[in-house]
Amino acid sequence: MTNQYYEFFCPVKVIAGKAALEHIPYELTGLAAKRxxxxxxxxxxxAGLLDPVVAACxxxxxxxxxxxxxxxxxxxxxxxxxIAGIYRSEKCDSIIAVGGGSAIDTAKAVNILVSEGGDDxxxxxxxxxxxHPLKPFLVVPTTAGTGSEVTSVAVITDTTKSVKxxxxxxxxxxxxxxxxxxxxxxxxxHITAATAMDAMTHATEAFTCMAKNPLSDAYATAAxxxxxxxxxxxxxxxxxxxxxxxxxxxxxxAGIAFSNSMVGLVHALGHAxxxxxxxxxxxxxxxxxxxxxxxxxxxxxxxxxxxxLYLEGxxxxxxxxxxRRAEASISALRKMRDELHxxxxxxxxxxxxxxxxEHQLDTIADMAMDDGxxxxxxxxxxxxDARAVLKRAWA
Length: 395
Prior knowledge:
Largest sheet: 6 strands, parallel
Keywords: NAD, Oxidoreductase
Number of helices: 15
Pfam families: ADH_Fe_C, Fe-ADH
InterPro entries: ADH_Fe/GldA, ADH_Fe_C, ADH_Fe_CS, Alcohol_dehydrogenase_Fe
Family: Belongs to the iron-containing alcohol dehydrogenase family.
GO molecular function: alcohol dehydrogenase (NAD+) activity; metal ion binding
CATH architecture of the largest domain: Up-down Bundle
């Protein structure tokens, strides 16, 4: 599965560690930015996570000109237009996104409007539409899962047409990703678990899908190892800042990996399930991962077997016959999901979610077939195949 030709691109500066937030003013002034706007949501603000960001800026004499804290979980074109209007009226010159995937995607879309002009974000939807660098943009993730801080995509809902608009451009990449464990210390257990499994899925699919390459492999395996080592420790000791930092770094690494090597059937099914049943993305990833790996097994036996080293460590890897390592990797992931279910009831099947009806499976399968992630799945998937995987994931 070695590609004869590949491209790898990640120009995002990563600033990570226990005092990473204090470097924000330095980064902004280096970009000639003096009037930043923060884009975030109510939950992040209520948890007090903006305080150290604002304090770091004020101590350096950098004033936060505006704080928009009303980003909804599923952001829309209306929200993007409103924020862009505030940015312009307050004469801001840069954006700091503080939050999870929705806040980061919203900030990316706002940056398109304030940089390119106009009020119609839909005009910039698609790939390669944006042709120029955008305004200075920093991202401070508050979950350790999406990897949005190092991806060149954003998705925004057009509420009038009830469709999700994708935006893809290397210009959407932030100037810097600020990874600070203080940002994830207050995450509740079920969100810690779901977002970590989101990152685990990014890394696993990056390592087993069609566009894998040696550089993305290095990031993917490092992410798998960090999550395998730290996730259950953090579940048992939520204030473990070292473990939190490991998970946050793993999320960023997995984001870099899948941005360059793509994802497959887990994401196709997850996107469709999220759209139809409104389940959180990380939960969908965790739920479908072992079932899809079983479906792909004979096409990915070698790389999946290799992952056992990073999932279970060298002792288990060397004690497991080479012919059984791929199955052992799936078992290790199932074991991790069982442990998470014990600790926070993270669902392992569609039935356990309580939000999916069995009659919806065909609709999910239909929608998944049109998902771009299908192109990179290592094994061809028919509609009947997708339905079969969903049935196995049902109960």
